[in-house]
């Protein structure tokens, strides 16, 4: 099942805000509808956002075929709909480069972005499962994951959750703890939904329980995704990632990041150079002002390895992206 695709002249997505209660398909016909879906998190996850950005430019190229100024503005709006994940702007710019060749060329490039992310998920699943087996030995590991990194975030299969699925298929997985991922509960709602569909044994834990469960010996490795990986190896990912990295470091267990090459940003030196999106108080509380960063920065020296669709980067051995 593709969780985002181009179907009969529109972008179709699984509405992630409706899960797990309802499996609802949204058809997005305009740039405004696509941007609203991105900003409301109806579509989210770095690879899926890259595809959404490319398909958004395909929509814009058809609507504004004879108005270059309006088309440029639409592309800019798509690129900046969310600031932190590098894939969104990259997908939009890649499709926009084909605008001089016409709408069909733009759509073909957007479909190529989609197909490459699908292939990347399959490759990451294999490489990541091999690495987990290497690091955890013959024992079937108990893994902790954070946020959602399955097909919902990556068109099909997923990044870190794709590795979980591959280990399950190999019979090499003891179980999963899914961190609930406050404040919007992507782990409790989305990851649990996907793991249930795959038949993977799992439990949901509150975010703050993760480091304690590691300290108590209930987790053998942490595996999660990334919205951006900086040139020095710093990882930008869902808020709460840094806490899990600290817990894994203290417990002496692997901390693994799984993300496609399209998420590696060699133009950004370190995490301090990344704009961290704050999503405002309403997602957290209605009674007071709140600080609500959507992402945090995990320093590279807390990362054991980064798995992309092309390679395994052993950060713990001094390797850089």
Keywords:
7-stranded mixed β-sheet, 17% strand, Four Helix Bundle (Hemerythrin (Met), subunit A), 40% helix, 321 residues, alpha/beta, Rossmann fold, 2 domains, 10 helices, 4-stranded mixed β-sheet
Q: Can you give a write-up of this model?
A:
By secondary structure, the chain is an alpha/beta fold. The chain has two domains: 4-116, translation initiation factor eif-2b, domain 1 (Four Helix Bundle (Hemerythrin (Met), subunit A), Up-down Bundle); 125-317, Translation initiation factor eif-2b, domain 2 (Rossmann fold), CATH 3.40.50.10470. 40% of the residues lie in helices and 17% in strands. It has helices spanning 31-39, 46-63, 68-79, 86-96, 103-136, 151-154, 160-169, 186-198, 210-215, 241-251, and strands spanning 4-7, 10-14, 25-28, 142-146, 175-179, 202-205, 221-224, 228-230, 235-238, 255-258, 264-265, 295-298, 305-307, 312-313. Helix 5 (103-136) crosses helix 7. It starts with a strand and ends in an 8-residue tail after the last strand. The relative contact order is 0.12.
């Amino acid at each position: 099942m593709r969780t985002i695709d181009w179907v009969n002249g529109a972008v179709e997505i699984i509405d992630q805000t409706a899960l797990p209660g309802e499996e609802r398909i949204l058809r997005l016909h305009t740039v405004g509808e696509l941007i609203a879906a991105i900003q409301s998190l109806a579509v989210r996850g770095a690879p899926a956002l890259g595809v959404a950005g490319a398909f958004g430019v395909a929509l814009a190229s058809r609507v504004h075929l004879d108005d270059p100024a309006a088309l440029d503005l639409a592309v800019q709006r798509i690129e900046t709909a969310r600031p932190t994940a590098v894939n969104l702007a990259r997908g939009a710019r890649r499709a926009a480069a084909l605008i001089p060749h016409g709408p069909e060329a733009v759509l073909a490039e957007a479909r190529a972005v989609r197909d490459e992310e699908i292939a990347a998920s399959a490759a990451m699943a294999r490489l990541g499962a091999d690495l987990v087996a290497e690091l955890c030995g013959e024992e079937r590991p108990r893994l902790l994951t954070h946020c959602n990194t399955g097909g919902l975030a990556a068109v099909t299969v997923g990044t870190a959750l794709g590795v979980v699925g591959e280990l399950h298929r190999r019979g090499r997985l003891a179980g999963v703890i899914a961190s609930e991922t406050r404040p919007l509960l992507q782990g409790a709602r989305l990851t649990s939904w996907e793991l249930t569909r795959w038949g993977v044994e799992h439990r949901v834990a509150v975010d703050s329980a993760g480091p304690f469960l590691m300290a108590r010996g209930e987790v053998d490795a942490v595996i999660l995704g990334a919205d951006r990986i900086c040139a020095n190896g710093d990882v930008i990912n869902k808020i709460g990632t840094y806490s899990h990295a600290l817990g894994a470091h203290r417990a002496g267990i692997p901390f693994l990041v799984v993300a496609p090459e399209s998420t590696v940003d060699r133009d950004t030196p370190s995490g301090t150079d990344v704009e961290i999106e704050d999503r405002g108080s309403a997602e957290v509380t209605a009674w007071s002002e709140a600080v609500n960063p959507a992402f945090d920065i995990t320093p590279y020296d807390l990362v054991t390895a980064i798995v992309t669709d092309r390679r395994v980067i052993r950060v713990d051995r001094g390797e850089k992206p």
